[in-house]
């Protein structure tokens, strides 16, 4: 699956185990407790893990480097959004929106009916993005994040009402 962004020369592509180093590199730029290259490789070895990445076609980034990515697990009736990350210098260009739209559309095409994710209570930009796709708060996990003890909000989505391009 490939989507082109109208604002920049970018491609949103399905990622594979060969992309584990680039995923790990981006994770370490974006998260305090990043997934390792080995963790990504192990996830790709399973049948339920899927990831999509943003590659810029005319960019100083190397051809294998990612500007952003989204990782999800598929079960027969649910897609769990695991992580979504965009390089700090590429934020506010619609990359997160493109990644989310791609992952949700892919899930819908496989017949998945529900979506779920966790988000830090302080991450207002992410919450805004998720709500724009129709995710609704369904609960809270107190002290969920190991690095800060911050609470996580649980969001769910009825895939029959998904706005894949809000």
Automatic annotation (TrEMBL):
Q: Does the keyword Nucleus apply?
A: no
Q: Where is the signal peptide?
A: none
Q: Which UniProt keywords apply?
A: Acyltransferase, Cytoplasm, Transferase
Q: Where is the N-acetyltransferase domain?
A: 10-160
Keyword Chloroplast included in the entry's annotation:
no
Supply the InterPro entries for this chain: AcTrfase_RimI/Ard1, Acyl_CoA_acyltransferase, GNAT_dom, YpeA/RimI_acetyltransf
User: Which GO terms label this protein's molecular function in UniProt?
Assistant: N-acetyltransferase activity
The similarity annotation says:
Belongs to the acetyltransferase family. RimI subfamily.
Matching PANTHER family: ACETYLTRANSFERASE, ACETYLTRANSFERASE YPEA
The identity of this protein, by name, is Ribosomal-protein-alanine acetyltransferase
